[in-house]
Amino acid sequence: MPLLGFNTGDEVEVSSDEDGFRGAYFAARVVRSMPNQRRYTVDYDAFVDDSDPSRPLRETVDARHVRPHPPLRAAASGFTLYQVVDVSYNDAWWVGVVTSVAGVGRKRTYAVCFPASREEMDFGHENLRAHLEWVDGKWVLPESMESSNVMHEKGSQVEVARLRENFAVAWFPAVIAKVIWENSFLVEYMDLRNDVGTELLREIVDLQHIRPCPPREPGVSFCMLDEVEAFYGDGWWPGVITKIHDGSSYTVKSIHWDKEIEFNQTKLRLRYDWVCRQWIPASQVLEIEFVKGRKVEVSSDDEGFRGAWYTATVVKSVGKKFLVEYQNLRTDDETKLLTETVWPRHIRPTPPNTPVVEFKLLEEVDVFYNDGWWVGIVSKVLRGPRYIVYFRTWNEEMEFGQEELRLHYDWICGRWIQASPGLQL
Questions:
Q1: No. of helices (H) and no. of strands (E), the chain
Q2: CA-CA distance, 192 to 201, in Å (whole number)?
Q3: Residue 339: what pLDDT?
Q4: What's the pLDDT tens digit per position in 227-271?
Q5: What is the rounded CA–CA span in Å between residue 343 and residue 324?
Q6: What pLDDT score does 74 carry?
Q7: Half-sphere exposure of 70 (CA within 13 A, CB side)
Q8: What is residue 196's predicted lDDT score, i.e. its pLDDT?
């Protein structure tokens, strides 16, 4: 079915970009088609309106999030080990990989791993269906699709992230045991073992949690405050050199440990970041970018500020961090501009100031709101010129003037990359 080919009453499945729902598809029915806006209004099968429980939940969604119901593929003989499947769970279909099978026929139970979250759960035969991909208006089997991830072939040595609250805190050496499909891999750890200690641990992981083995320079001497990775507990943990000892040993401090630990030189390596399929020394960011007095933009991981960029000036470097003074944020007593020490990953140069006569419908923009720049999409062009902008972060629309908008750019691999002139939905 071509894009925007759904009519009122069609049964569809709808995906979401919201945290906690990304990757899931929800059964729904089309109640309105809006071709000019490339959107649909749908009623969900399994959810009701909070204000009126007798009515289904209704929502307007981007066309790119809507697909038809996939055909049911017969699986009387059951699903096989490492098969990609859809799992019915919490009123949605989630993509997973079968990791073990127990029982016979339709009484079989399956352990299914969800690579993106690394969770594993058990399901009955009736909760599974064969996974199909909706590509160019056709349903396609995953195994018939060519994978572009040629970097991670079977037998490749890699490092796999161990997660804490969805953030990588350490990297553990492993080997690719099987390429399952596109973004999913079966890895076998080189040092970690199963609970009983008899075999090397195997796990299914998503591509985002895998990287190649970083470069390592043997015999390197480290300096104070060097950013390093220390081999500890069978994995490589990020830290900073805080003391240099005689005999090629160093004390390392990490935010992930409750104390500083001394390591031999052979258990340390300079820290590199895997960015755009290139290894970049972590300390290189300090040398390349931000000198005293430079105008920058600063982000934050704090709740309520995540996703925004705030204009600031670099005051000075402080070890591996930077002291910045914000242009619009002030101290609690409002007497002076706020200063803060931040990590290099939270700083970028100010983006290009590209003059725009009028922004276009569906154009990706930055909006100046609450003293920071937030990413949004022009959902309606008004007179003035003024604009209605949709923010995915809050799932809200707000009105702004021309002077409060700028073209959105992404800072990638040391370059500004402009968003597409009309967002493809």
A1: 1, 36
A2: 6
A3: 95
A4: 899 999 999 999 999 999 976 899 999 988 989 999 999 999 999
A5: 10
A6: 55
A7: 20
A8: 86
Residue 234 tokens read as 């069978």
Alpha-carbon span 363 to 8, nearest angstrom: 27
Q: How far apart are CA 70 and CA 138, in angstroms?
A: 10
Query: Can you tell me whether residue 264 is helix, strand or coil?
Result: strand
Closest by CA position to 270, among listed 244, 247, 238, 245? 238
**b vs e for 193-219, b when ≥16 Cβ sit within 10 Å of the residue's Cβ?**
eeeeeeeebbbbbbbebbbeebeeeee
Please choose, from the candidates 405, 291, 391, the residue with its C-alpha nearest in 3D space to the C-alpha of residue 347: 291
With vertex at residue 14, the alpha carbon angle to CA 56 and CA 26, rounded to the nearest 5 degrees, is 60
Contact present, 141 and 82 (Cβ < 8 Å): no
Element housing 261 (H / E): strand 261-264
The 8-class DSSP code of residue 72 comes to P
Locate tokens 């704090």: which residue? 302
Residue 126: both structure tokens together: 């009736």
- Residue stretches of the chain with pLDDT short of 70: 1-4, 73-77, 144-150, 218-219, 247, 283-289, 412-415, 418-425
Q: Measured between alpha carbons, how far is 142 from 114 in angstroms, rounded to an integer?
A: 16
Assess contact for 114 and 50: CB atoms under 8 A: no
CA-wise closest residue to 323 among 346, 350, 351, 349? 346
Biggest alpha carbon–alpha carbon distance for the chain: 76
Q: Is the dihedral of CA 394, 397, 402, 403 positive or negative?
A: negative
**Burial level of 365, CB count in 10 A (0-12/13-18/19+)?**
buried
d(CA 92, CA 25): 5
**DSSP structure class, residue 143:** G
Which amino acid makes up residue 316? K
- Cα of first residue to Cα of last residue in the chain, in angstroms, is 16
Six-digit token string for 387: 């604009």
Question: Which amino acid is residue 213, in one-letter code?
Answer: C
Contacts of 250 (CB under 8 A, 6+ apart): 222, 228, 241, 243, 244, 262, 263, 265, 268
Q: In this structure, what is the dihedral angle of CA atoms 54, 60, 63, 69, given to the nearest 10 degrees?
A: -10
Using the structure block, give the residue that is written with the tokens 């003037």: 401
d(CA 390, CA 29): 23
Which helix (H) or strand (E) segment holds residue 288: the answer is: helix 284-288
Helix/strand/coil percent split, the chain, to 5:
10, 55, 40
Distance CA 30, CA 5 (A): 11
* Tokens, residue 194: 């199963």
